[in-house]
Every structure is written in structure tokens, then in C-alpha cells.
Description:
This protein has helices at 10-13, 26-32, 57-61, and strands at residues 35-36, 49-50. By secondary structure, it is mainly alpha-helical.
Amino acid sequence: MSDRKHIRSKADRRWQPSKIPNDNSPQAAAEAFACDHTRKCEVCGDTPVVNATGLCGPHTFGESATMGGNW
């Protein structure tokens, strides 16, 4: 057997379009920046997180005043 790893074909490497809908409506923006109390921040484990980023307020916006969902 060869020690080489499986080399991916060109078909595996081609660009795939995003599955996220391109919705610029105010409702979509409000939903993207709403608080999600069911998930934890990917950096510090704090809740709530911003839906669009998966990070807590301070890690998303860079301001400590956004802690606890104050955004």
C-alpha cells in the first residue's frame, strides 16, 4: 500500500455556492443579530450569542457594554 494520502479530484475542490439565502430585508437582519440563549460563545463559552456570528456580544462588537445581550 502507498503511504500517500487520498488526493481530491478537481470536482471535490470546485467552488460551491453558499447555502445561506441572500436576504437583505430588515427582518433577516434583525434575526441575524438577535440573542440566542441556547448556544454558547465559541471563544469564551458565555451566553447569549449573536446568531450571525456564534459569539457573545463583547466578542462580536468589541465592547464590554454589550455583555448579557445588550445590543
